[in-house]
## 1
Amino acid sequence: MEIRMISETEYTVSGVSIKNMTNQRYCIFDFESTGINHETEHITQIGAVIIENGQIREEKIFNSYIKSPKPIPEAVERFTGVYNTYLQDAPKLKDIYDEFLEFTKECVLVTHAGYEFDLPLLRNECQRNNLTMISNPCLDTKALFSYLYPEIKDIIWTDYLIKYYNIYDKDIRRHDALGDSILIGRIFLRILGEFRTRNIKDIEFIDKVLVKRFEIKPMV
């Protein structure tokens, strides 16, 4: 897989290849962090859930706060609902990372905006902590939707997909890593349904898929 940033507002994705997509085991994951700059911020929560046989297995979850080397700013606390007090007794990333890797074993990873945030954030954290970067194939709901609908020029926010697919989210705590993982899972299942409707059995980005980057807005 190749992700190429072509401007401040767009990037392309190519080389994605998932065969027999309906028979795969998926791990939907999400991170919360101290901020939105993946180069300087740190993970504060990891959430993940498994999809097997077309169903979200909510009994198979991974959820942990992560002790950060820097405090969470007040604006980020208010936005995410993750407070510094939650991290006081939390493990450091290096102490729980192997458990997360084990949870994702033999899974295709799925996230939202992961190509532009979650994966670069994790890569930087791995470099800081001398950890091995996760190597599972990874899908991003933004890129998948852009593959299906290249004519849509909007930025594909989570809320955009919730509205587009009429996803129920009233039972989920938003901006919580586990809650957002479950929500991304619901979106992903609807996207898989569209692939099946089009009689597409394999996910393959042979040509570059153009994706709009999210806009970084300061939190105050």
## 2
Amino acid sequence: MRVGACQTAEILGDIDAAVDVILACAEQADVDLLLFPECFLQGYLPTPSFVRDHALALDELPVRLAEVPHTLVLGLIERSGARYFNTAVVLDRGRVLGAYRKRFLTAGESVFTPGDTAPVFECAGVRFGINICYDAQFPAAAAAVAAAGAKVLLLPAQNMMPRDRAPHWQPRHNEIRRLRIEETGMWLVSADVTGVRDDRIGLGPTCVLDPAGRVVAEVPTGTTGVAIAEIEP
């Protein structure tokens, strides 16, 4: 499986602009699977008003996503009945293959309901599962994916942080991810945002880590782009 992890500028509340970015990345990247950051479709702003105004049901996704010729793993704000979820949906030419809902929520994500399943999918003969951002701090989230037979853990993230905290956390993210790799033996692929919003900054990293914890592909800090790696079945 040839996988691409997309590091993007943050887009808040403009689904059409987000889809434009997705289609541009898909056109440029020769891959089997493309991964985008946490809540990328609508933007990550977990306030009740923003979530209510921008959430989508999985049968309301933009029809233009069917133009993506690869398997697409996309972070979004999901509405299901009266509940909201921080979700990563798996699409094949616009067809929903399934979704993962973030299990471990931060204190600032009380608007969301936590997920309770760890589905595993397959692309180009390689089984993969998903955790979302803060999930990576909890061994149980990655362990559930590994127990289902996955070889790859996809990690959409959104680490737009206050400027005084971001430099401390930038290397720490991969330190935490390597713990999950050591415990499970999986590859780990993360996609994050970059740029500045008010007093916050996104430093990533967007990268691919092999089962030894080595960075085999990475998007440079402060740039947009795609980290691409080949993962054998």
